[in-house]
Amino acid sequence: MEKLNCIMYQVIHFAAECYPIAKTGGLGDVVGALPKYLIKRGLHTAVFLPWYDQKWNHNNPVKHEWHGNLTGANYNVNYEIIKSENNNLGFDVFFVHIPDLLYRPNIYGYSDDPLRFLFFQHAALDFINTWDDKPGVFHCHDHHTGLIPFMIRHCYKFYGLQHIKTVFTIHNGLYTGAFSWSLSKYLPDFHERNMGFLDWSDTINPLATGVKCCDYMTTVSEGYLDELKFGENPLQRLYNETWMKSRGIVNGIDTDVWNPATDPYLENKMTKDIHEFKKANKLQICEASGFDPYLPLVVFIGRLVSEKGGLLIPDTIKRYLSFGQNVNFYILGSGVNYIEDQLKECVYQFPKNSSVYIGYNEALAHQLYAAADFLLMPSLIEPCGLNQLYAMRYGTIPVVRRVGGLKDTVKDFGEWEGYGICFNNASIDDIVMSLYRGELLHKEVEKFKWIREYIIQLNYSWDVAVEKYIEIYKK
Asked: What's the pTM?
């Protein structure tokens, strides 16, 4: 491919999450994989990330690159740039260290989050402003970095970065990062005629700002882009006005991390026979949980919140098992206390057919993907979804609601060349019926085996998705 006009880093990613450093969801997985695959394709790439008080940061070597100071009429903030020396990541990471603002045990959830991410973006650009060789593309992810396209176009101190092109990716449009105009005094100086780029409904809205000011916008699936343009959401009009510079690209998965043949979290790895692989891992989980291994195993892995369909799961389990204990359920995740309590009630009521692990457990997640017959994703909103892609990589059939990226990546087995189970409504009735279809499919041994063999060959790797991003960068 032709080279981009940049001598040093050609593409810089800005994000709040990056696996394995800091992650709460799919954003972290994407930012932890896409740069690595860009480098494989010859693009010199790095990531900028806040320096959090998290385990990875304590256990890996880093070096101190730069000390800087951000000043304005209303602020004086010292920052430090720290660079990762961990070659296992596959790309360089620059951390912005502002002790009072960023160095905290959680990524999000603080009352001053708007200021935290505002100064993260400001400091990152302040450091890049000192480079002799400027990057060709800034790739910004979600509202936490949505002010960067505005800053380099309209803030006086960053006019030297104006030539850099910007791509803005929306991973979850539910969160806009909107904050009061009273905080505008903490932004780098800009002319008042440009205030409209920041404004949406009388607030500063970083998500809207990113969409307005970027050169190109992407979402993490075609289906989700359609939902943003035609479904009810606060920025619907803006998405329609900017459709010419937008594109949906389904996320890839890191096939080095998610490889059933080499997965370090699995005692029983996959060699040639997918069915023996599934049988061995399922038996291990069932023995630990007290399940009958001959029954279908349905798992849910993710956040127990309403947008993921979490409120529907406890009643679905209770209703299904009340009619007959012909399926086993294993739930891994955490979230709303009410949902967690209801799931514990399910285990109390049906101890032989249900199990729940409240919390985050990466090893158990890999083991459940390897063991399960079906993965349940009853999402109300799912911009892309990676869990269904992980599941299919491990021979687990996804049971999904037709929404966002799930609609783009899973085709019902009742259709021509279909391989999953799909339903339309976020209702217990639809989920129960879909699980019943799964139970019947499990009894059709040959068809069930064929679907397993088919889905592990589907290619949703970053090798496919990265080419679409490179095409956009080259524009």
From this structure: 0.89
